[in-house]
Amino acid sequence: MVRPNRINSAVTNGTTSENMIFYRDVVDGLKADMKHLQSKYFYDAMGDRLFQRIMKSSAYYLFNCELEIFSKRTADLASLILQQDGPFDLIELGPGDCTKSGYLLEYLVKANADFTYFPIDISASIIRYIETELPQRIPGIKITSLEGEYDDMLTKAAALSAHRKVILFLGSNLGNMTPKQSLTFSRKIRSHLHTGDLILIGLDLKKDPRIVLAAYNDKEGITRQFNLNLLKRINRELKANFDLSKFEHYPTYDPATGACKSYLVSLEDQVVSLIAGDNLEMISFKKGEPVYMELSHKYTIDEINRMAQQAGFSIAGFFYDSKGWFVDAFWRAM
Ligand SMILES: C[S@@+](CC[C@H](N)C(=O)[O-])C[C@H]1O[C@@H](n2cnc3c(N)ncnc32)[C@H](O)[C@@H]1O
C-alpha cells in the first residue's frame, strides 16, 4: 500500500490560534447587522456524519444526480483528463468522503494514469478518513492530503510540482459562495493554473423551486440538525451556552436569483455568552431574528458559461444527470 503524505495548514492543526480564529469569526458574524455564521464551520466530526446522512436522504437530489454522472460517465470524464499526455496532479477541493470522485480516481488508477491525488479539506476527520479508507478502496493510489482552507491549501498544492493540474470542485460547493465571490474564487484558481489545465465543477441548476426548497428541508429533519450542530460546536469549543431548543431551521429559495439560503431563527429574546482565553462576549438575539447560516446558489448554463469566460476558462465539456437537474462542467484554462 502507498502511504499517504500529509500537509497541514499553520493554523488548522488544533492550536490555540485556530480556536481564536474560530472565536473571532463567530463573534464578528453574530455582532454584524445581519447575524451570520460561516458555513465552513459546519464540518466537525458530527457535521461530517450529518452531511453523509443528508446525502442519503431522498429529498437531497444533488448527491444522487452527481453520483449518477460519476458512476455512469466515468470513462468519458477520464478521457477528457487523459486527452493530454504526461503526469498530472489531481487536486480536489472539499472532497468529503470521496463517494463520487472515488469512481474517477479508481478508473484513473486502473488505467495506469500517472497522477497524485491532493484532497484539500478543512475537516480533520475527513482528511483522516481519506488517508485510511481510500488506499484500501483504491490500492496503488498516491495521496498527499492537505488539511486546511481552500485558498491556503490550493496555493500550497499548486506549488508542489510542475505537473499539469486537474482540479475537482464537486457537490455544488462553489454554490456556497455568492456569484461575485465565485467569480473571484474561479479567477484565483485560474491564477494557479497553466493554459490547458482543467477544472471540473459540479453545480446545481435552477429548476422547479419546490424541488430545490425540499432538498434543504428534508422531512427527517437532518438538515435542521446539521445547522443546529454548529451551535453545539460553538457551545463545546467556545464555552458558549446556546439553548438549541430556542432556535429553528428556516430555509428559503428565490427562483429569480437562484439563492437558496438557510437561517436559524431565534424563537425568543435571549442572550448567549461565548468565551475564548480571556475574552468573553455576550450576544443578544431578538425573538424572530434570523442568523444566516448558508448559501447554496443555483445557476443556469448561460450563467455558468459567463462565469467560466470571465474567469479565463473555455468550456471543454458538460455532463448532466438524466433529469438535467445538475451539471458537471469541464473548464479549460485559456
Ligand atoms: C458539502 S460537502 C461536499 C463533499 C463532496 N465534494 C461531495 O460533493 O459530496 C463540503 C466539503 O467541503 C469541505 N469544506 C467546506 N468549506 C471548506 C473550506 N473553506 N476549505 C476547505 N474545505 C471546506 C467540508 O469539510 C466538506 O468535506
Précis, in short:
The protein is an alpha/beta fold.
What Rg do the Cα atoms give? 20 Å
Q: Beta-strand level of the residues, as a percent range?
A: 25-35%
What general form does the structure show? Answer: globular
Number of strands: 13
Major sheet attributes: 8 strands, mixed
Count the helices. How many?
A: 11
InterPro entries: EgtD_Methyltrsf_superfamily (IPR051128), MeTrfase_dom (IPR019257), MeTrfase_EgtD-like (IPR017804), SAM-dependent_MTases_sf (IPR029063)
Protein name: L-histidine N(Alpha)-methyltransferase
Domain Histidine-specific methyltransferase SAM-dependent: 23-332
Keywords: Methyltransferase, Transferase
Description:
This protein has 334 residues and is an alpha/beta fold. The protein has a domain at 34-57 and 209-297. Helices cover 39% and strands 26% of the residues. The chain has helices spanning 16-31, 45-56, 61-72, 74-82, 101-110, 124-137, 150-158, 179-191, 209-215, 222-237, 301-311, and strands at residues 5-8, 88-93, 115-121, 144-147, 164-169, 198-204, 247-254, 259-266, 270-276, 279-285, 290-297, 313-320, 326-333. An 8-stranded mixed beta sheet has the order 1-4-3-2-5-6-13-12, with helices on both faces. Strands 7-8-11 form a 3-stranded antiparallel beta sheet. Strands 9-10 form a two-stranded antiparallel ribbon. Strand 2 (88-93), helix 5 (101-110) and strand 3 (115-121) form a beta-alpha-beta unit. Helix 2 runs antiparallel to helix 10. The longest helix has 16 residues, at 16-31. The protein is globular and about 60 Å long. It starts with a strand and ends with a strand. The protein binds S-adenosylmethionine. S-adenosylmethionine is lined by residues 40, 43, 51, 94-96, 100, 120-123, 126, 149-150, 170-171, 173. The site of S-adenosylmethionine has 17 residues, from strand 3. Residues 23-332 form the Histidine-specific methyltransferase SAM-dependent domain. InterPro entries: EgtD_Methyltrsf_superfamily (IPR051128), MeTrfase_dom (IPR019257), MeTrfase_EgtD-like (IPR017804), SAM-dependent_MTases_sf (IPR029063). Keywords: Methyltransferase, Transferase.
